[in-house]
Amino acid sequence: MKKFDKDLLNKNILMLSDYVCENNYHKKELEDERFLIKKFKEEIEKYKLNFFYVEIKTLKELKAVLKNVNLPGTVIYNWCEEVDQKEGSGYLVAKYLSDNNYIFTGSDYKALKFANNKTDVKKILENNGILTPKFVEIKKIEDTKNINIPYPIIVKYNNLHSSVGISARNIVNNKRECVRICREMLEKKESSLIAETYIEGDEFLVGVWGFSSNLQVLPIVKVEFLDKNINDIQTYRAKFKLDSKQYKNTIYKFVDKKADSAIKKIVGNDALLAAKLLNLEGYSRFEFRGAGSKYYLIDANPNPALCQECFIFISAKVLGYNYGETILKLCEFALKKHFDSRK
């Protein structure tokens, strides 16, 4: 068993999740979710802690749930990505928790809200010497006339994470293809787009956990694709659709300590700097693509989604943490941050 701060071991652990609508999930995805929650409970309760799991749909429900929570005796694991059925609204949960002095995991609401806008994030990165692909923001279809970067280009939602809306079709090779995919995406979601240079090369995932001056880079993972004719980027299906060809085609390997030490130094240092610049705490994930000595940060994701084989659990396992202990470690960070803020 892992050694945790004695103050944490006297707390209750409340995991808050947005509502899991069974109609929106494949059978295997529901099984994955239930497996995780079961594991969380079993492995956390081995430490003689009380673990509670609650799903909410709205801020009103959140307030009702927390009305009966022992504020100083509880650490909240914030697993909410949205409320009131509004994509990208998870920061509102963090704001309510912060405004009401709850101890909770992850970044504060200002950092979460800022990180929701890829355009703003990329400007911060560029201004501080971190490589990120050249881009143009697309708010309306007429903005495609302003694209002045060379093809191929990949088109993404500006205000959404986790590769939402991304498939192989998002990589375009000319203006006609670009206009087509931009029109489709603008019609589907209430978010602007970014059209950015598509970076050829290898893909790496870098996790950073901790808070303020105690941030630490987790073991770095290289993303590989068994058959590049199926997918050679991390699409939404490759990340989350457990029954899909893309998911089964995507594998994760830890970076070799000796052979890839230069790569680890580049992406590890850039991820750590990015986390500090963006005020990301708790746990955040950074995605890089590139080759040689040039690796571009293509996404910065605070409070990433959890699933059975997601990156946080893969990396934490190397450090000896099981599912429940990983959650406890993030809760320990939250508690230490809370105590430090009161000094």
Describe the model.
The protein is of the alpha+beta class and 343 residues long. Among the domains are: 8-106, Rossmann fold (3-Layer(aba) Sandwich), CATH 3.40.50; 134-197, Dna Ligase, domain 1, CATH 3.30.1490.20. The protein is built from eleven helices and 14 strands. Strand 9 (202-210) and strand 10 (216-217) form a beta hairpin. Helix 3 runs antiparallel to helix 4. The longest helix is centred in the N-terminal third of the chain and has 19 residues, at 27-45.
List the helices and strands and how they pair.
Blueprint: E1 12-18, H1 27-45, E2 51-56, H2 59-66, E3 74-79, H3 91-99, E4 103-104, H4 109-115, H5 118-127, E5 135-138, E6 153-157, E7 171-172, H6 175-188, E8 193-197, E9 202-210, E10 216-217, E11 221-225, H7 236-240, H8 245-249, E12 250-254, H9 261-277, E13 282-291, E14 294-302, H10 311-318, H11 323-341
Give the overall silhouette: globular
Structural class: alpha+beta
Q: What is the CA–CA distance across the termini?
A: 30 Å
Named CATH architecture of one domain: 3-Layer(aba) Sandwich
Report the mean per-residue pLDDT as an integer.
92
CATH topology of one domain: Rossmann fold
Q: Share of helix among residues?
A: 25-40%
| Rg value | 20 Å
Helices and strands, in order, run as EHEHEHEHHEEEHEEEEHHEHEEHH
Number of β-strand runs: 14
Strand content: 15-25%
Instruction: Give the biggest beta sheet.
Output: 6 strands, antiparallel
Question: What low-confidence regions span 5 or more consecutive residues with pLDDT below 50?
Answer: none
Number of helical stretches of at least 4 residues: 11
